[in-house]
Specification:
Elements: E1 2-3, H1 5-12, H2 16-24, E2 32-33, E3 39-42, H3 43-57, H4 62-74, H5 79-121
Antiparallel strand pairs: 1-3, 2-3
Helix pairs in contact: 4-5
């Protein structure tokens, strides 16, 4: 199946400007073009955009995403470096999760404290 840029933007949750930006900086290969010269995205393109969105959501810097994307485009022989990028990023994500869990514990403590105070005053 193929999708126009507006459809790809809607399905990916990215803006049209972001899709063009990702293409310009080399995160995505230029998509195929239809007979009118308009971008035509495939299901594979959308799956790649979904993966990029996950990387971005987890805080991977654009420069690392670009390195990963360039290695992916080069294909065979780059798997070890791509794996290492993901392993390093997973470590960063796990550290952020632990930090957020600590913050959540503080929030829960405060919420419970106020709950106890409100219950005692009722």
């Amino acid at each position: 199946m193929s999708y126009a840029i507006a459809q790809a933007a809607e399905r990916s949750g990215l803006s049209i400007d972001t899709l063009r930006y990702y293409e310009r900086i080399g995160l995505v290969e230029p998509p195929a073009r239809d007979s009118g010269g308009r971008r035509s995205y495939s299901d594979e393109d959308l799956a790649w955009l979904e993966f990029l969105t996950k990387l971005r959501t987890t805080g991977m810097p654009i420069r690392m995403m670009r390195e990963y994307a360039q290695l992916r485009m080069r294909g065979v022989g780059t798997e070890a470096r791509r794996q290492q990028i993901l392993i390093d990023h997973r470590k960063d994500v796990l550290e952020r999760i632990a930090e957020l869990q600590g913050c959540l514990a503080v929030l829960n403590y405060k919420i419970d404290l106020y709950g106890d105070r409100l219950e005692a005053s009722a």
